[in-house]
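hi!! sorry for the late reply, been swamped w classes. u asked for the two structures so here they r. pasted raw, havent cleaned anything up. first the sequence of the first protein and right below it the tokens
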Amino acid sequence: MMKKFFILSAICALMCSCGSQKKVEGNTADLYGEWIIEKAMGLSTEGGEKQAFIKFAPDGKMNGNASVNSFFGGYELKGDTLKLGNVGMTRMMGPSMDIEDAVVKALGESVTIKVNKKSASVLDKNGKIVMELKKK
């Protein structure tokens, strides 16, 4: 249990660093709104303590829930580039930490998001899908 908490804390610290460049393909207006995170790192998020989601607002703010903990921060859209910055996260333990760990890892590894109106795929630097999203 302590090992998982340490790993989660390390990943959160990585996410909270200066931010990383993200690439958006497709109509960026389709990105705005709330997305249900259906899978993260190949793991279904069904059955988590809370429904995992991420929400992008037109004012450059984003927030979500990774199953147990909430995350929040800002983002910028410039052309096809999305930059996440000042990402913070609550730090509680809960019954669905496996889902939580997968969502946090996927957020940390995401580079490209392909938006198709009602669904989206988030890919890592190697083009592997790390999250599957469905528009709420």
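now the second protein. again sequence first, tokens right under
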Amino acid sequence: MLETIVREDPRELGYLRSRWSLQLLARELESRSGVEVHAPTVRRWLARLRYRYRRARPTTFRRDPRKAERLATIEAALVENDPYTEVFYVDEADVDLNPRIGSSWMRCGEQTTVPTPGQNQKHYLAGALPAHTGRLVWTEHHRKISVLFLKLLEQLRRR
């Protein structure tokens, strides 16, 4: 039961935490089993299950719930092949140069991934991939303001 719980996201169970603490795991175990368990016992059980308290690996991956809808719109624009319509795949990314990532419980040999959090020093990238040329164009700026987008448009105009 502990292994099942530790693999779940505490937020999905109504807790206002992004990671499990020993006390929170003990509370959830008691809630599900009706048996009172103390935090040190949970720590020993996690060790037996080969879980360690480690930092997660940062990633920039985020799922887009409207991805299929957006791809269908892009595909329709590509099929129309209107000479007055340019199709670009455009995205931007915030790069945290000094991210802080908290530790969480994870099985030995497995590393959890989390989006890079924090308000540390950042840099911003924007890129565009013209659908007809397939040639990536990108630019960077120290602030996420309209200048970043204007610099990207200037890069596209030069190509």
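hope this helps!! also noticed smth abt the second:
The longest strand covers residues 88-96.
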